[in-house]
Amino acid sequence: MTEKAQKYSKKEQIVWKSIGIFRKQGYFKTSIADLSEACGIHKAHFYYYFKDKEHLLEECLTTVKKIFDKKIFILAYQEKPLKERLHEIEAAIKNIFLKYEGGCIMANSVLETAHYNPQFIPIIQSFFDAWMQALTHLYTEKYQPATALAKAEQAVQDIEGGIILMRLYKDDRFFLKALKRAKQVIY
Amino acid sequence: MTEKAQKYSKKEQIVWKSIGIFRKQGYFKTSIADLSEACGIHKAHFYYYFKDKEHLLEECLTTVKKIFDKKIFILAYQEKPLKERLHEIEAAIKNIFLKYEGGCIMANSVLETAHYNPQFIPIIQSFFDAWMQALTHLYTEKYQPATALAKAEQAVQDIEGGIILMRLYKDDRFFLKALKRAKQVIY
DNA sequence: GTCTATATGCGGATAGAC
DNA sequence: GTCTATCCGCATATAGAC
Questions:
Q1: Which of B164, B165, B170 should we substitute to test contact with A (largest number of A Cβ atoms within 10 Å)?
Q2: Quick one: which of A55, A56, B144, B153 could link to A51 by a disulfide (CB 3.0–4.6 Å)?
Q3: Which whole number is the average pLDDT over A75-88?
Q4: What gap in Å lies between CA A120 and CA A166, rounded to an integer?
C-alpha cells in the first residue's frame, strides 16, 4: 500500500539520477560511487538493484527513449493543425535540452560506447528512428515522402550538431537556431 | 643527420597513433597501456615523452587543428573560382572522415571532457571557429555576411550530426548528404 | 533492504638500473 | 632512450552480517 503511494520506486529514482549524471560526466568517467552518493545509497547497495554498470546504462537509455516517445514524438501524430503540432514538438524539445546540461545522452553514448559496447546501438537507433519518423510525418504534409525524410534527417543532424556547439561555446543559440530551422521547413 | 632524415619523430608518431585510438575508443576508455602497445613502446616509456595523459590529448587536439588548417580550411582562401574551392574542401573533408573510423575527435572530446577537463575547450573552439570561418568566407560571395555565417553554422552542425548518425547506423549516407547540402548552399 | 568489510584487478604514474 | 620493478589509488564487484 505505502509502496504503491510512492510515485517512483527506488530503482526508478536511481535511473533518473543516473541519466542526469551520465549525460553531464559521461559513462566511463562516472563511477558507481558517484551514482550511489548522488542517490543517497551505499556503494555496495547499488548491486542490489542492478547487475552492473552496463545494465544501468541500458535502463537509462530505454527510459529516455520511452520518455521521448510519450512526451515528445507523440505530439507529431495528434489530431491538430500541422503548425500547432510542429510548434508543440519544438517547444518540448527546447524545454528538455535547455533544462538539463550535458547535451543528448543518446548521442553521447554513441561516441563513448560504439566501439566497446555495441549492445547499446539498437536502443539508440530506435530513438533516432522515432525522432526522424515523427518529423518525416510532419513534413510529409507539405513534401513528397522522400523529400520529407531527407529534411527530417537534416533537421535532426542540425539539432544534434547544435547541441554539441551549445555545450562547446556555452551558448544556446546554436541549438535554438537549429530548432527554428526545423520549424521553418514548413512555414 | 639520420634523425633529420626521418619524416616524423617518435613523439609525433605517438601523437598520430593516439589520435586514431582516442577517436575510436574515446579518451577515458583508452589506457596508457593501449597507446604504448599500439606504438610499440613500453608503458613506462610513455612518460618520457609526455607528462601525463591529459598533455597527450592536448597535443592530439592541437595537431588535428593544425592539420585541418593546413590541409582543409586553407582551401577556402585560394585564388580560384568559388565552386572549385567549394568542391575541393568538400572532397578533403569527405576524404578525412571516411578514411578513419571513430568520427570527429573534436566533437567526441567535447562530450567526454567538457565537464572535468575544461582546458581543452579553447582548442576545440578554435577548430570550429576556423571551420565556420572558412565556410562563411565561401558563402559570403553569394550571401550577406550574417546569412553566410548562419548557413556556415548550419552546415557544420549538419555535418557533425551526420558523422554521429554515420557511426550509429554504420551508414556513410548521413554524412555524405550533409556534405552535399553544404555545397548546395552555393549551387 | 541496508550496511561493513573486503577481494581483486586495473590504470596512472614514478624510481632507478642499464 | 629504453626497460624492470613497483607504488598507489580507485573502481568494479562480492560476501555476508544485521
A1: B164
A2: A55
A3: 97
A4: 25
Residue length of chain A: 187
Interface list for chain A against chain B, based on CB atoms closer than 8 Å: 24-26, 28-29, 102-103, 107-108, 110-112, 114-116, 121, 124-125, 128, 150, 153-154, 156-162, 164-165, 167-169, 174, 177-178, 181
Select B2-184's CATH number: 1.10.10.60, 3.20.20.70, 1.10.357.10, 3.40.50.150.
1.10.357.10
Residue B5: pLDDT band by 50, 70, 90 thresholds? low
pLDDT band at residue A6 using 50, 70 and 90 as cut-offs: low
The C-alpha cell that represents A45 in the structure block:
547497495
Query: Residue B130 region, left (φ>0) first, then alpha (ψ -120 to 50), else beta?
Result: alpha
**Measured in Å, how far apart are chain A's first and last C-alpha atoms?**
51
Q: How confident is the model at residue A49 (pLDDT cuts 50, 70, 90)?
A: very high
Q: What does each C-alpha distance from A118 to B6, B61, B111, B113 come to in angstroms?
A: 39, 26, 19, 22
Place B130 in a pLDDT band, splitting at 50, 70 and 90. Answer: very high
Distance CA B15, CA B55 (A): 11
What are the tens digits of pLDDT across the range B51-104?
Answer: 999 999 999 999 999 999 999 999 999 999 999 999 999 999 999 999 999 999
Fold of A8-184: Tetracycline Repressor; domain 2 (1.10.357)
Angle (CA) B82-B86-B88 rounded to 5° is 120
d(CA B31, CA B138): 41
pTM: 0.97
> Nucleotide C10: nearest residue by CA–C1'?
B31
What is the band of B6 on the pLDDT scale with cuts at 50, 70, 90? Answer: low
